[in-house]
Amino acid sequence: MKIAGNIPIREVEENFINIQPIQAAGRLTAEAMKALIVYGDGYSTCDQCRKPFRLDKITKPPIAEFHNDLARFLSMDEARVTPGARRAFQAVCLALVNKGDTVLVSALGHYTEFLAVENAKATVREVPTNDVNIVTGDAVAQKIEEVTREQGKSPALVMLDHFDYSLANEHDVVGAAKAAHQYDTPILYNGAYTVGIKPIDGKALGVDFVVGSGHKSMASPAPSGVLATTSEYADTVFSTTQMIGDVTGRQFGVKEVQMLGCTLMGGNILAMMASFPTVKRRVQEWDEYVAKSNYVVDALLGITGNTCVSEYPRKHTLTKVDTTGSFDTVARTHKRRGFFFSDELKQRGIVGAFAGATRAWKLNTYGLNWGQTRYVADAFKEVAGKYGLL
Amino acid sequence: MKIAGNIPIREVEENFINIQPIQAAGRLTAEAMKALIVYGDGYSTCDQCRKPFRLDKITKPPIAEFHNDLARFLSMDEARVTPGARRAFQAVCLALVNKGDTVLVSALGHYTEFLAVENAKATVREVPTNDVNIVTGDAVAQKIEEVTREQGKSPALVMLDHFDYSLANEHDVVGAAKAAHQYDTPILYNGAYTVGIKPIDGKALGVDFVVGSGHKSMASPAPSGVLATTSEYADTVFSTTQMIGDVTGRQFGVKEVQMLGCTLMGGNILAMMASFPTVKRRVQEWDEYVAKSNYVVDALLGITGNTCVSEYPRKHTLTKVDTTGSFDTVARTHKRRGFFFSDELKQRGIVGAFAGATRAWKLNTYGLNWGQTRYVADAFKEVAGKYGLL
């Protein structure tokens, strides 16, 4: 079945339990889907655009109110929506970082942070993790000192993923923020894996910027994201244009340089707004989702030869496991090789494990109810049993 | 009726003929709407993401093929999708323009070009229009010489809107490209008001970059856009990351710095793809749409006191008219002031004229069939007749 031309239909969420690592918390709510249908036309949000002609000031639909709600939700002073978390990293880097500067990221930092720094013609240095793959405040302090000694000036910015994309280990944001501020360096909190699923209090964490991803963790379409900051940094990162046309004398008022004027229009912002009541509710249920994550991981660890590569017990629903000692021993002689495993799961109505992977691989149990959680755990045990691995 | 919480339903395209200046050519096709529904989840496009793990390389759905089609459609060598035309301006500026450089834009250039230049810490200079509000190649050459004399070096880039946002006058892109290249300055073609509605041949125009807006003229959701370039500039604007993690030794392969890695995911890219067969077909019907535009403008000009602020006869479906000598004379004494005019249109099933405006205002007749075209023209005459203006 095709949508148009050669574009296939997709039936994943409709027919399967999906444990894909990055899709789980981005799935749209029914309300978001309705918003996409109604506001699919990009400029549909702009029917009632009035002075000062900036998207985040529009009151019908209540986009301005949503921006205030977002800032409050993150305990920050100001918030803007962006076309994805990476565009928020970019905005902060372009506003704060000069050519030749150094920015610290974690050794488990996401590649988009590297690119945002490169975009600002600056260089990245990594803060190493400790022996249990955690970035500590001490490590941040040490790296700042190292860079300062080398270059005669401290880094322009620290970016730290609260839970990283690779292991979803929890890193010491509070410690890192204290360390950064000791050296007068601002810190950006990458909440791509937290904002929208776990309660986040930017002020309590002590960070200067909070970035979230709509399509990763806020049940919103791609691209969408949020950038929140303190009143201290708002004027810098949300500075308004100073350009004046030399011929026309034109000026562009309140248009913000790093936001490139109006930000997310149409279905993407309206879907974020439509999902927001659900998002605010679901962050309160985070502990329950973590409990379900541990339930599934425990089932995997009950199979001989399996290990958990992520920190354990889990503090997140995204987990990297290693099944080299179990499922991979089957893959070595199975005619479908590593695909036997995803085949077996698919036959049981479970998708999202990387097809063909039987060594280190990731799963994300976010959004499953207890029935589905037990079903997934049992499915892993069943597959193991079928191949004599228990 | 609400979608969720306080988000109202929107019924514009369903119930009215919409002549809003910037909405007309961005309205989704039925196929795009289907794509939004199916691929609304942001990461839904990434089910089959395989090495080298970059969105524009994904073959299922056929995103890679679409990128090739897009480049061919614009007669350029390489194309990428971006979150809006402004993000394409930004990418080119960050890649080509250094701090303190000068970039030429037109005196009728869009504000997002100014912001993109400011983003690169450079400065804008405007090329003046001639006495009939057209930017000529000579004017570009003259401004380049002026800047070069002043600064001892030529501008880093010229950006020119083919049809500008204000009057939708056609500017001399071919002449401007020749002028720019005489001074070894690259030129960016801003096709926000052409790409997707009018056939565009970037090679024939002689430009180095072609930028289009999905939500403005390609029947695609916001944000979406396209950046196409020649093989000469592809390596510069689509350069891949050079960052190396100093602790981990990590590198990120083919991720492109200015694209920030993967670009448009989910419903936005798939809707662009779904609309593309229609877009390819409709650009061939451009002359017919221009004829309809002239039909409506002629009706307005048939009302005593009206003038066409845009060049006339029209070469575009977007037009600025001045009705100070007609409808505005009514507004001066009407109890609804300028709103009488939008009220009258709305009663006739027509929306999109800026509510309250009766002096200079814009309309866009793109997408109307002949029946609707005649109906709109008649409605203007009818309102004029009702108030004794004919």
Write the layout of secondary structure elements.
The structure is a homodimer of 390-residue chains.
Chain A: E1 2-4, E2 7-8, E3 17-18, H1 30-38, H2 63-73, E4 78-82, H3 85-96, E5 102-106, H4 111-119, E6 123-127, H5 137-151, E7 157-161, H6 173-182, E8 187-190, H7 202-205, E9 209-213, H8 214-217, E10 225-229, H9 231-237, H10 266-282, H11 286-301, E11 307-308, E12 318-322, H12 327-331, H13 339-347, E13 350-351, E14 360-364, H14 370-386
Parallel strand pairs in A: 3-13, 5-6, 5-7, 7-8, 8-9
Antiparallel strand pairs in A: 1-2, 4-10, 9-10, 11-12, 12-14
Helix pairs in contact in A: 1-10, 3-4, 5-6, 11-14
Percent strand of chain A: 5-15%
Greatest chain-chain interface? A-B, 92 and 92 residues
Please report the number of helical segments of chain A. Answer: 14
Q: From N to C, what is the helix and strand string of chain A?
A: EEEHHEHEHEHEHEHEHEHHHEEHHEEH
Broad shape of chain A: globular
Summing up helix and strand content along with how strands pair, one would put the structural category of chain A as alpha/beta
Classify the oligomer: homodimer
* Low-confidence residue ranges of chain A: none
Lateral arrangement of strands in the main beta sheet of chain A: 4-10-9-8-7-5-6
State the helicity of chain A in percent bands. 25-40%
Describe the structure.
- Two copies of one chain form a homodimer.
- The first copy, chain A, is an alpha/beta fold.
- The first copy, chain A, is 37% helix and 14% strand.
- The mean pLDDT of chain A is 97.
